[in-house]
């Protein structure tokens, strides 16, 4: 009962929080000086907790400690253990299998609720909202009861803890189904994106700086045409977006054990979007040996995915890249022809 609980200040005081304490608060976001002038003391925890801590310890002694866990250089969650990688491979399999079912089951005339059911969410915890957007709906929309129409753009995602599988394209069989202004979608937009993403995969090397990867995207997918505003790739964990070492000017190197999200999001008023979003893990020789010994089936699946991406799609992968998705690198520009996908010559 609420009238029998001790006050929070009394509870914290009895645990030793006082004016000589230094208190770190870990939530879901840390801040830089570019985001807030008092970044170190900006908290994203409930105000009643923050206010009480500051009363007991003093404002300067209460700081944001989230970076200890989340920052991309040395955050505790930036590098995943073999057990975490095994779990995330499982959730990537669930998510990508659901995405594949949806793409192969999509038909014009279906309600978006019917299409969304095809993903087969099994009750596992989600890392973000399941999205399903058609026509001019914003990309973060969910199903609304709309009828799927031939010739309209569509995007969807399914994200369990440690995974997010997302595809964007058109409800079409060929370019003829698209609006006339968008009928060069493959040649002038989606195909270019796929070629650059093949290069992006090639830069997924341990020791590679985040700036090098970000510069590839900035130079070859310029924002005035492709509209990419978010980091071109990021770390993923139980939360869909942990943090990112990939941004212009970043000297943060990619490291073994990082689970990376292939998340480069183009947006265009005519061509809409395209996407190849799934997960991968960077694993040096030692980590690969550990995974092969402890999780041989997982390791075999990753090797099969590597062979598919290299031999079928023509995407050259560094040896440290282990794809986690069952639809790795697969981008069908026209969702009514899901077996017609991009490949490098």
Can you describe this structure in just a few lines?
By secondary structure, the chain is α+β, with helices and mostly antiparallel strands. It is built from ten helices and nine strands.
Descriptive account of the structure:
It is a single chain. The chain is of the alpha+beta class and 345 residues long. 32% of the residues lie in helices and 10% in strands. Strands 6-7-8-9 form a four-stranded antiparallel beta sheet. A three-stranded antiparallel beta sheet has the order 3-4-5, with helices on one face. Strand 1, helix 2 (47-57) and strand 2 form a beta-alpha-beta unit. The chain is globular, with a radius of gyration of 22 Å.
Characteristic terms for this protein:
345 residues; alpha+beta; Creatine Amidinohydrolase; four-stranded antiparallel β-sheet; three-stranded antiparallel β-sheet
What secondary-structure arrangement, pairings included, does this model have?
Elements: H1 8-14, E1 23-25, H2 47-57, E2 62-64, H3 67-70, H4 82-105, H5 112-117, E3 131-134, E4 153-158, E5 165-170, H6 185-202, H7 210-220, H8 223-226, E6 234-235, E7 259-261, E8 279-282, H9 285-294, H10 296-312, E9 321-323
Parallel strand pairs: 1-2
Antiparallel strand pairs: 3-4, 4-5, 6-7, 7-8, 8-9
């Amino acid at each position: 009962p609420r009238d029998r609980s001790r006050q929070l200040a009394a509870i914290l005081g009895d645990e030793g929080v006082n004016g000589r304490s230094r208190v770190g608060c870990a939530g879901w976001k840390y801040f830089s000086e570019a985001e807030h002038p008092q970044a170190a003391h900006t908290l994203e925890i409930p105000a009643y907790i923050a206010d009480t801590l500051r009363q007991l310890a003093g404002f300067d002694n209460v700081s944001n400690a989230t970076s200890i866990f989340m920052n991309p250089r040395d955050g505790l969650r930036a590098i995943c253990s073999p057990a975490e990688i095994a779990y995330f491979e499982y959730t990537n399999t669930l998510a990508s299998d659901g995405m594949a079912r949806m793409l192969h089951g999509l038909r014009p005339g279906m309600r978006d609720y019917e299409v969304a059911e095809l993903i087969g969410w099994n009750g596992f915890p989600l890392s973000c909202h399941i999205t399903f957007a058609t026509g001019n709906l914003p990309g973060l929309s969910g199903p609304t009861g709309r009828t799927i129409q031939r010739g309209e753009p569509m995007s969807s995602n399914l994200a369990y803890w440690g995974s997010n599988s997302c595809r964007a394209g058109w409800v079409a069989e060929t370019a003829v189904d698209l609006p006339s202004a968008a009928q060069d979608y493959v040649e002038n937009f989606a195909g270019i994106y796929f070629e650059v993403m093949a290069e992006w995969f090639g830069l997924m090397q341990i020791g590679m700086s985040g700036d090098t990867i970000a510069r590839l995207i900035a130079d070859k997918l310029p924002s005035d045409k492709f509209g990419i505003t978010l980091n071109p790739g990021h770390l993923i964990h139980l939360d869909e977006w942990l943090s990112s070492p990939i941004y212009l000017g970043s000297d943060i190197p990619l490291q073994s054990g990082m689970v990376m999200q292939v998340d480069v999001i183009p947006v265009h008023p005519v061509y809409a979007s395209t996407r190849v979003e799934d997960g991968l893990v960077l694993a040096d020789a030692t980590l690969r040996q550990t995974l092969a010994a402890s999780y041989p089936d997982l390791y075999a699946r990753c090797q099969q995915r590597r062979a598919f991406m290299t031999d079928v799609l023509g995407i050259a992968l560094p040896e440290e890249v282990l794809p986690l998705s069952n639809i790795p690198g697969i981008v069908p520009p026209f969702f009514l022809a899901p077996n017609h996908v991009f490949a490098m010559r």
